[in-house]
Amino acid sequence: MASSFPDASALLADALLRFGQLFPEEPPPQVAVCAPGRVNLIGEHTDYNQGFVLPMALPLVTVVVGGPTSAPGVTIVTAAQDADEPRRVELILTGDGSSLSPGLPRWANYVKGVIQHYRAPALPNFRAVVTSSVPLGGGLSSSASLEVAFYSFLQKLKPDDGEKLPKVLACQQAEHTHAGVPCGIMDQFVSVFGREGQALLIDCRSLEATPVPLADPGLVILITNSNVKHSLTGSEYPTRRRQCEEAASALGRDSLRDVTMAELQEARERLGDVTYRRARHVVEEIERTVQAAEALKRGAYQEFGRLMVESHNSLRDLYEVSCRELDELVSAAMEVEGVFGSRMTGGGFGGCTVTLLQAHAVDEAIRHMKERYSGTPTFYVTTPSDGARGLNLP
Ligand code: GAF
């Protein structure tokens, strides 16, 4: 059986209850917002190379409730599972801004970063409670969902111009400056712009997105959490990014988006084996992503699935960001009849796989993956969902 997870209204009810218990002196929350995590269907490690990605927003969301206060300072409490301690932080918005510097607990860094990069200054003091159904460190962008949800919360407290792209960029900046991850634009983008029933083909150079309909009742998008925790703050993600930049610069280009396989082959010796393999993954993955989006538009699921598996193999062998557990889950999924394709999703080194399959094959796929996997997986049957939004208060 796939896991059931609370929807946005169940999370909202929980957050409101907690708010009342934590802040009995305050009036009930006047603001409630949510922002989704994402799963990337294909186009991995291409966003910071100005390439294409094809993610969709998830029904797994982070919810923030709260409101302005006449009391001093800002207090934020998280009820998100697995958040590190302490779960309550107090911040001072006036003065030298030192309380917004990154530190511990780690979950609060995303919030501090967003406050720092929020584009309408002079926020009022506030109280807020955060809760989430996006698994932390599961490769489903729990961090982007927290950043975008919190930014959306601030927009309700002290409105900015409401423009969506600057919001995406500010949240990405928050991740760079406060979480120390030099991430691309994909996660924050789809958490803001995601649409129900659609994946988004995002051109990470022009920042234009083309919706790709994905609402076939005969088709299921199954996410499997390996429950191997991933952390992108280690050296691997920045190292991959640097290797790509070195490859592009050795070829006289701004990014690998403009490099062809013929050019790469020709420069192979000059680049050295590791840099060549990293760049080859990116150049081929960009092309695969465009082809996959076309295939999805045509309903050519077999072709899409084949490209997913090629993507996984490339991430495993050329980019070297997979791990034994993810490989096991992908192999197991591909043994089940009715499965079109499966691959690791997100930054890698643990986290989740995404599998595209016929609806009738879901139970068997879950059973088989459980049996074949050496760890304890969690399964989510998901559908493409809306991006950040306000929630109605009761
Ligand atoms: C992480 C990053 F945050 C994204 O920007 C992207 O690079 C992804 O890893 C890999 O495709 O989620």
Spell out the blueprint of helices and strands.
Blueprint (H helix, E strand, L loop, with lengths): L7 H15 L8 E12 L9 E17 L5 E5 L9 E4 L15 H11 L8 E7 L9 H16 L6 H16 L6 H8 L4 E6 L4 E6 L5 E7 L10 H15 L10 H6 L1 H4 L1 H26 L2 H17 L6 H11 L4 E7 L6 E7 L3 H11 L5 E5 L6 E2 L4
Parallel strand pairs: 3-5
Antiparallel strand pairs: 1-2, 1-12, 2-5, 2-6, 3-4, 6-7, 8-10, 8-11, 9-10
Helix pairs in contact: 2-3, 2-4, 3-4, 3-5, 4-5, 6-9, 9-10, 11-12
The site of 2-deoxy-2-fluoro-alpha-D-galactopyranose (GAF) has 12 residues, from α5.
Question: Can you give a write-up of this model?
Answer:
- The chain contains twelve helices and twelve strands.
- The chain folds into two domains: 211 residues, Ribosomal Protein S5, domain 2, CATH 3.30.230.10; 168 residues, 2-Layer Sandwich (Alpha-Beta Plaits).
- With 394 residues, the chain is of the alpha+beta class.
- α11 packs across α12.
- Strands 1, 2, 3, 4, 5, 6, 7 and 12 form an eight-stranded mixed beta sheet that branches.
- A hairpin with a 4-residue loop joins β6 and β7.
- The chain starts with 7 loop residues before the first helix and ends with a strand.
- The protein is globular and about 65 Å long.
- Helices cover 40% and strands 22% of the residues.
- The longest helix has 26 residues.
- The structure holds 2-deoxy-2-fluoro-alpha-D-galactopyranose (GAF).
- The site of 2-deoxy-2-fluoro-alpha-D-galactopyranose (GAF) has 12 residues, from α5.
